[in-house]
Task: structure prediction
Amino acid sequence: MPGKVLLAAAFLILAMFAGCASVTKPWIAPEVALSGLRVKELGLARQSFIVTLDIRNPNDRALPLSAMTYRLSLEGTEFATGGGVLERQIPAFGEETVDVEVVSELFGLLQRLPALAMKGEPLAWRIAGTATLTGGLVTLPYWYSGEIDPRQLIAVAPR
Result:
């Protein structure tokens, strides 16, 4: 009899773990899109920009972001990087727009921006990085690309 009780208890524990595993699905990385870029500071050695990102949560539960990193390319050239704390709770299937700072040491691309804007054609962008969830135990890589109107890239950030 004690063996049957022990066996029943083991099956019950396994059933509970199996139930918990089906409730907690793996996280899906947020969808990140570039929606704007403003010059913050210009220098010969370093430039900084304020990048506006649209972050969409594809999960069926709130996405508790604690930090993100960014690598931004424009027209095939990586030109800015950044990252840091980004305490956000994005609702299930929700979207949030955030402004983040990135830095660049690539002055040549900045010199090309006015000419690219004059062409009037959309510019190809790519963003890649990681999103770290609250607690720091889960880090989700992401990478997305698209096109943006060049007029959105030549504004100067307000002081």
